Amino acid sequence: MDLKQLRYFSTIVQEGQITRAAKRLHMAQPPLSQQLKLLEQELGTVLFDRNGKNLELTEAGKILYKKSQDLLKSFEDTVSEVKEVGEGIRGNLSIGSVKTCFSYIPVRLKYFRKQYPLVTIRLQEGDSSLLSTFVRNRDIELAIVRLPLDLKDFSILPLPKDRFVLVIPKKWSDKKTMKLNEIADLPLLLLHRLKGVGLFELVVDKFKSQGLVPNVVCQCPDATMLISLVQAEVGAAILPKSTLNSFPTDNLNIIEIEESKIESESAVIWLKDRYLSKSAIRFLETFQIQFVEDAK
């Protein structure tokens, strides 16, 4: 059994058919079928249940597929590391960020691109749960996420705490501060993760701790949509203050929340005990630099 056979096997699993797998591998179907047969003979077990043209993994096949993914990724990491040593910092860097943390990205990418112009950046947006899955699956190397999050698989770089503010249409009020009991009756637009516990629960729990029930009229995982709704005077949003650095706020009034401080924690995460490219390491180092935009 060699890496080529494992790649063939992995592609067959992902495509579910020999025909589709052969097409993806740019090879004829008979040689691919022969390779699968040889693999099963070598292992002395059946890897697929045949159901017409479709293939379903046996229990033995499921184990081999899981182990083969780890082996193939480890091999790819080795190749990447060797190339980096020989060629310097170049290639691709895949980064994810929740929209409420995107304000960390632009100034760092500008600095990074000046230092490492041969690196191509791929950005991925999503909520914290989705981005953590992308990191686990090696679709991206780094992600900036909002906590809480299950961090057992990750190394983390904590970021400064971020205070929440109330964002309302300017026509509604010119106040600079408001208390939670004043805010509770407003039509509120809150961030809500697609999966898991996040900022929504953090905000609602703060109201509950004061015996208040917030008037939540809309929940959405996208900060851009919430700000657009505020600008359309649909309601008022409670958002991390740094989020607003990435959006125009000309028609908005940003109000500090009195007495009951609501804060969010965020972090950069990457997969624990796995190879991290030089470009990813260099991008992480940009978080040790205090840029002017961080102070906004």
From TrEMBL:
CDD domains to which the protein is assigned, alphabetical: PBP2_LTTR_substrate
UniProt-listed PANTHER family: HTH-TYPE TRANSCRIPTIONAL REGULATOR BSDA, HTH-TYPE TRANSCRIPTIONAL REGULATOR YBHD
Protein family according to the UniProt entry: Belongs to the LysR transcriptional regulatory family.
Keyword Ubl conjugation (UniProt): no
InterPro entries xref list: HTH-type_LysR_regulators (IPR050950), LysR_HTH_N (IPR000847), LysR_subst-bd (IPR005119), WH-like_DNA-bd_sf (IPR036388), WH_DNA-bd_sf (IPR036390)
GO molecular function: DNA binding; DNA-binding transcription factor activity
Protein name: LysR family transcriptional regulator
Stretches of the chain forming a coiled coil according to its record: none
Cellular component aspect of the GO annotation: cytosol
Keyword check for GTP-binding: no
Organism: Neobacillus mesonae
SUPFAM superfamilies (alphabetical): Periplasmic binding protein-like II (SSF53850), Winged helix' DNA-binding domain (SSF46785)
Domain HTH lysR-type, residue spans: 1-58
Matches recorded under PROSITE patterns: HTH_LYSR (PS50931)
